[in-house]
Design goal:
Radius of gyration: 18 Å
Number of helices: 4
Strand content: under 5%
Number of strands: 0
Oligomer: single chain
Order of helices and strands: HHHH
Helix content: 55-70%
Length: 101
């Protein structure tokens, strides 16, 4: 009977996951702060957009609304996390080649 080895996550995977968690936390924070602000002058939504730029800025061309704002931040988070993961894997692959493995 063989057992599957424990799945080990690479640093690139963990970095991309940490980025995604931070961005989701910023989105939740922005929604809560905006909901609590009764003056309709909250600029909290800018922070998640800047954290997920430049990808989220492409989605700002969508119509106005909370759902489109959330979609822009989520899409920016997913695309940027995928790019972070890809870059991390590419860099670690290059480091292994340089070490003679």
């Amino acid at each position: 009977m063989t057992t599957d080895p424990v799945r080990r996550f690479s640093p690139a995977d963990l970095t991309a996951l940490a980025y995604a968690v931070v961005c989701v936390g910023l989105l939740i924070w922005a929604v809560v702060v905006t909901a609590m602000d009764s003056t309709d002058e909250s600029m909290a939504g800018v922070i998640p957009l800047l954290a997920t730029a430049p990808t989220s800025l492409l989605f700002l061309a969508l119509p106005d609304g909370a759902a489109y704002f959330a979609a822009a931040v989520v899409a920016g988070t997913l695309i940027n996390a995928a790019i972070i993961r890809w870059c991390g894997h590419a860099l670690s692959r290059g480091a292994r080649r340089g070490a003679g493995e």
